[in-house]
Amino acid sequence: MSKILKFTQFSLRDLLVAAAPTVLLIVGVCLLAYWLVDPAPPRSVRLGTGQENSAYEEFGKKYAAALAKHGVKVTMVPSAGSSENLKNLRDGKVDIAFVQSGSTNEEAAEREGLSSLGSLFVEPLWLFVREQKGKPPITKLTDLRGKKINYGPKGAGSARLFRQILELNGVEKEEVERLSLANTPATVELLEGRIDGLVFTSAPEAPLIQMLLQTPGIKLIDFNQAEAYSRKLPFLTHVTLPQGIVDLGRNLPAEDYNLIAPTATLVGREDLHPALEDLFVQAAASIHSGAGWFQQQGQFPSAKYTEIPVDPEAAKFYKSGPPFLQRYMTFWLANFFDRMWVLVVALGALILPLSKVIPPLYVWRIRSRVYRWYGQLRAVEQKVEEAPEATRMQVYQEQLKRLNEIEELVNQVSIPLSFADGLYGLRSHIQFVRKRIMFLMDEAAA
To answer: How far apart are CA 190 and CA 207, in angstroms?
Structure first.
């Protein structure tokens, strides 16, 4: 039993030694494939949001919570708005950001290495004005001449859009006194009566929008030419704020309002990891897919309504849903297998042919323990055959002694039982050579 265990142990060792070159080659190919494939996605990402109490900030918090479930930390980088977010993307200060449609064009986005992950929601242009007793009400944009209007801070998308709207109405920029306050302090100024109106683009979920729509003395301007604006500026959409949508009990607003609205898009840099793009698009689907004041169930997120080219990964999601593996595995595990497809292909190409090499190597290694002694045995025979007549007896005796040494060493050789026939064959051949030498010795002595 001890011999069998010994033989078995040696056979396993020989198998490992025979397989070592193949294993090393496969490991080398695996390391090379791992080095060549995309690196693992980072565990943190910078998201450009917006001003305090803005819809961008509110949605940024939702994205941070959604990605935190997958172990990815989202650092929100506040900004004045869409234009500043675009600048931060170009400068590499953020990896992904909310950008308003109309802020750039396709050629500029491609040149700057930016791509859209889809449009998320419409964000109407809200123009709120203060009603003043004894003064004619502001009902149209031409009534803004000579008024103090807050356009929003430098870098906000609303300022650029509102300037375009005023130009379409023939209102020169010097005819309106412009302020550039952030939305929250501008709202305070409006409520205190120190400015006549303020304008910003935002989804209705923004706390400031909700408050201003319900504040007595604050009026929302109706863009009754909204359809014409959408034809003049194709990135705009005509949307309607329905009567009673804010508060049905108090019938707020008391009538339908026509509004013009760009869409908010999620824009990423070209070096944003594809796996993070998948996470953001999936988060967008859960955050923005519901029905809202200006959208139907499932209308957003969408590959439409954006002038920036949609990233192929995002387009694939809108067409086919989430990646196959992520439907059944955790994000990190699915990402690992998705990245390692090169490794799987490499292993499949290597294992099958190399597996056919290992058995012959194993057999050769075992049999070589026996075969190498045949060289020694042949050397003994050659010296016996070439022995000079004068010293023939001495040579016979030396080679007989050498033969005994060989036999002693052969008896110490351990091989698996399945190869024992070769070992016993070698021993019989040693005995055959010994008998021949002894025969020659007897002949020489006679």
So the answer is: 16
